[in-house]
Write a structure and sequence with these properties.
The protein is of the alpha+beta class. The chain contains five helices and eight strands, in the order ββαααβββαβαββ.
């Protein structure tokens, strides 16, 4: 039995990452509109496999992690979203928080699916990680994600550097 709870929204099923997701996951992480503000480059098949394994490991260690977002009607993988603590070397630090993140296939962006998924995830976090503040970092220039963070109750707290770019730090109080 999986440690990853299944969450359902009006249009999505949020479930664990599975080995058979690799090809669809690779397709997601090789799209320029996906990686532009995250890694800056398409991921390799091996890196995608590593991310799938990391996601499963997050759940085993933190009792939180990322979900695969699948379309309720077609079952197609359309993105991923969730919570993590990957001990980033970043200032200001994200220590003491769970870091939220989301990514959607460009074919479904702009339809409110990220908000739908993150609303379910934040509700789950409020119940299962009471008292833990949430954070997220978003690359400067990623206006849709910055706007979504605000709609989800995150507030900008700082700006800093990560790798070669500037990121905006956001925090959301526990249970906000």
């Amino acid at each position: 039995m999986s440690a990853v709870p299944v969450l359902q929204t009006e249009r999505l099923i949020l479930r664990e990452h599975r080995p058979e997701d690799l090809d669809a996951y690779l397709d997601l992480w090789t799209q320029d509109d996906v990686v532009r503000f995250i890694s800056g480059r398409p991921l390799t098949r091996s890196e995608c496999w590593g991310r799938i394994l990391r996601s499963r490991g997050l759940w085993a260690v933190l009792r939180a992690g990322f979900w695969t977002l699948t379309d309720r009607e077609s079952g197609k993988l359309v993105g991923e979203a969730g919570l993590m603590d990957i001990k980033r070397a970043i200032e200001p630090t994200l220590d003491g928080t769970l870091e939220a993140g989301w990514v959607l296939n460009p074919s479904v962006q702009g339809k409110g699916l990220a908000r739908e998924a993150m609303t379910a995830i934040l509700g789950w976090a409020d119940q299962n990680h009471r008292g833990v503040p949430l954070s997220c970092i978003i690359s400067e220039g990623n206006t849709p994600s910055v706007q979504l963070a605000g709609r989800l109750g995150f507030q900008e707290t700082a700006r800093g550097s990560l790798e070669d770019g500037t990121v905006i730090h956001f925090r959301r109080a526990a249970g906000a």
